[in-house]
Design brief:
The chain is an alpha+beta fold. The protein is built from 17 helices and 20 strands. The strands form 6 sheets. The protein has a 5-stranded antiparallel β-sheet with strand order 10-11-16-12-13. The chain has a 4-stranded antiparallel β-sheet with strand order 17-18-19-20. The chain has a 3-stranded mixed β-sheet with strand order 1-3-2, covered by helices on one side.
Length: 503
C-alpha cells in the first residue's frame, strides 16, 4: 500500500504495519501527526479528531511493538503523536479490527450489545481503548469495573454516562472472536521483523537506536527540537501551529528504555513511558498508585515519558513535585570530542537544581537528560502526593503537593516537600521543611508549618485557580497529610466507591 505526498522540505518515508501488511507513506514532514497521515493520506476516517490536544480520546489508536521479544499493545492519542515516531510499529484503527467478512471484533460487538454509543463521535476511540484492554488481558478476561474506569480515563463521552461502556468492557471477554480479526500476535511479530524502518540517518526526523548515536546526533544538531513522547510538543504543533525543520526523537535509544534497580535507587531511562515509570515507582511505594493513575489519561501515559515531563519543566508538571520530595536526581549526558574521537560525558544534579526559570534549565545545547535516579524507600518514611484539579481524571493540576517525611519516636527527623502550580518552576518548600525538621509530629507543629507553607510561595491566578485558592489549598493538604497519619482515611476521595464502581 503506497500513499504519495512529497512536500519540498522532506523526503523521508514512513513505514508501519497495518492489517498484517506493510504501509509506506512517502515524503512525510517531520511535524505531521499520525492522525493526519491516517485521515488525510490513507483516508482512514474512522479515527476522529475531537480536541486536537490528547484530551478527549476520539483519535485513539493502538500501537503494537516488539519489546524483549514480546508484542506489546498501547492505546495512544494519534492527534498529538508525530507520524514518524511510529515508524517500524504496527498501527491498529477501528477499521482494522473487523474480520475480513465484516463481523465485529468483541470490543465493537460489546459496545453494540450494551448500547454504549449514542452520537457515535467518540465511539471509535472508546473501541480502540477497549481493544487495547482486550489484547493486554488475553481476550478481555478478568476485567474489573475499577480497571475499566482506569483504562478508559482518557476517553470522554458526552452522551452515555459511561455505564454502558463500562458494561461493554466487562462483557467483551465473553463474546466469540470471529475468524480473521486482529488477534494473531505471531503474524504481527513476523511482519514487524520483516518491516524495514524508513528513518534516514540524516533526515529531518531522527530516531537513533542507541545512546551514543543519539548523543552524537544532538552534538551536531543542538538546535533540533527534542521529543520524547510528544504529548507537549504535539500541542505546540496542533494548537500553536509551530513547525520544526529538524526533530530528534529520544525514544528509540534502547539504553534509555529501561528501568534499572540498584541497592539504594532505581534509575528510570528518559525514554521510559509514564505508564512504565509509574509502575516502577508504585512497585517501590504502593501508596502512589492512585496518583499514577490520575497523572493523565492512559493514552497520554502510554505516549509520554517521565524524562520528557521532567526536561520540559512545566510548573504544573505533576511528576516533578513527587520526584523532588523523593530526593530524585537527574543525569545529563553529552558527546564530548576527544583526541581519540569522542566519549560520553555526564554530570548529575538534584532535580530541583535543574531549573532556572519558567521552562528554562541549566542544560547545555548539546546535553540530554538521560536518567532519573530515585532513592528507594527507607524505614520510617512517610510519603504521599496530592493532585488538585477541576476534573478527577484526565486533567491538569491546579496544585500538586508531595511530602516525604521520616518520623522516628514521634519526631520529624527529615522532611522533603515538592510543590507544583505555585511558582514559575516546580519547587522545593525549604522553609516549610525547616519548620518541621526536629519538631514533634503534633498538630501544633503541623499548624505552624501550614502557615509557613501558605506564605512560602506567591502563586498567580489563572484559568485553573486563583492565587488565594492555591495558597489556602497548600496548607490544607499539609493538614490532610497529618490527619491521614493519624488514621483518618475517609477524607481521601480515592477511598470512596461509587455505586457504579461497585456494581
Amino acid at each position: 500500500m503506497l500513499a504519495r505526498m512529497k512536500p519540498a522540505n522532506s523526503v523521508q518515508t514512513l513505514r508501519f504495519l497495518r492489517r498484517g501488511e506493510a504501509v509506506s507513506v512517502e515524503g512525510v514532514p517531520p511535524t505531521r501527526t499520525l492522525l493526519e497521515v491516517l485521515r488525510d493520506d490513507l483516508h482512514l476516517t474512522a479515527t476522529k479528531e475531537g480536541c486536537g490536544e490528547g484530551d478527549c480520546g476520539a483519535c485513539t489508536v493502538v500501537l503494537g511493538e516488539v519489546v524483549n521479544g514480546q508484542l506489546e499493545y498501547k492505546a495512544i492519542n494519534s492527534c498529538i503523536r508525530l507520524a514518524h515516531s511510529v515508524d517500524g510499529m504496527a498501527v491498529f484503527t477501528a477499521e482494522d479490527i473487523v474480520s475480513p467478512s465484516g463481523e465485529l471484533h468483541p470490543a465493537q460487538e460489546a459496545m453494540v450489545r450494551c448500547h454504549g454509543s449514542q452520537c457515535g463521535f467518540c465511539t471509535p476511540g472508546f473501541v480502540m481503548s477497549l481493544f487495547g484492554m482486550y489484547q493486554n488481558t488475553k481476550g478481555g478476561q478478568g476485567i474489573t469495573r475499577e480497571q475499566a474506569q482506569v483504562d478508559l480515563s482518557g476517553n470522554l463521552c458526552r452522551c452515555t454516562g459511561y455505564r454502558p461502556i463500562l458494561d461493554a468492557a466487562q462483557q467483551m471477554g465473553s463474546l466469540p472472536l470471529p475468524a480473521g480479526c486482529a488477534d494473531d500476535d505471531n503474524a504481527t511479530v513476523a511482519g514487524l521483523k520483516a518491516l524495514k524502518p524508513g528513518a534516514a540517518a540524516d533526515g529531518a526526523y531522527l530516531k537513533p537506536r542507541s545512546l551514543d548515536t543519539l548523543l552524537k546526533a544532538r552534538s551536531t544538531r543542538p538546535g533540533a527540537q527534542l521529543v520524547a513522547g510528544c504529548t507537549d510538543v504535539g500541542l505546540w504543533i496542533t494548537k500553536q501551529h509551530r513547525r520544526f525543520d529538524q526533530i530528534i526523537d529520544v525514544t528509540g535509544a534502547r539504553e534509555l528504555r529501561r528501568v534499572e534497580t540498584y541497592p539504594h535507587h532505581i534509575a528510570i531511562g528518559a525514554a521510559v513511558s509514564l505508564s512504565e515509570a509509574f509502575e516502577a515507582l508504585v512497585a517501590e511505594r504502593p501508596q502512589l498508585k492512585a496518583f499514577g493513575q490520575r497523572f493523565a489519561g492512559l493514552p497520554v501515559r502510554n505516549s509520554g515519558t517521565l524524562g520528557g515531563n521532567v526536561a520540559n519543566g512545566s510548573p504544573i508538571g505533576d511528576s516533578m513535585p513527587l520526584l523532588i520530595a523523593l530526593g530524585a536526581s537527574v543525569v545529563l549526558m553529552r558527546w564530548k570530542k576527544t583526541k581519540a574521537g569522542g566519549e560520553i560525558a555526564h554530570r548529575e544534579l538534584r532535580l530541583e537544581d535543574l531549573y532556572t526559570g519558567y521552562r528554562t534549565n541549566v542544560m547545555r545545547p548539546d546535553e540530554l537528560l538521560c536518567w532519573i535516579k530515585v532513592p528507594r524507600p527507607t524505614a520510617g518514611e512517610r510519603s504521599t502526593v496530592y493532585k488538585i484539579s477541576k476534573r478527577f481524571d484526565d486533567d491538569i493540576s491546579a496544585v500538586c503537593l508531595a511530602l516525604n517525611l521520616h518520623i522516628d519516636n514521634g519526631v520529624v527527623r527529615s522532611a522533603s516537600i515538592g510543590a507544583g502550580g505555585v511558582a514559575a518552576t516546580p519547587a522545593r518548600a525549604r522553609q516549610t521543611e525547616a519548620a518541621l525538621l526536629g519538631q514533634p509530629w503534633t498538630e501544633d507543629t503541623v499548624m505552624h508549618a501550614m502557615d509557613t507553607l501558605r506564605t512560602e510561595f506567591q502563586p498567580i491566578s489563572d484559568m485553573r485557580a486563583s492565587d488565594a485558592y492555591r495558597q489556602s489549598v497548600l496548607g490544607n493538604l499539609l493538614r490532610r497529610f497529618w490527619l491521614e497519619s493519624q488514621g483518618q482515611q475517609a477524607i481521601n476521595l480515592e477511598s470512596l466507591k461509587t455505586l457504579e464502581a461497585l456494581s
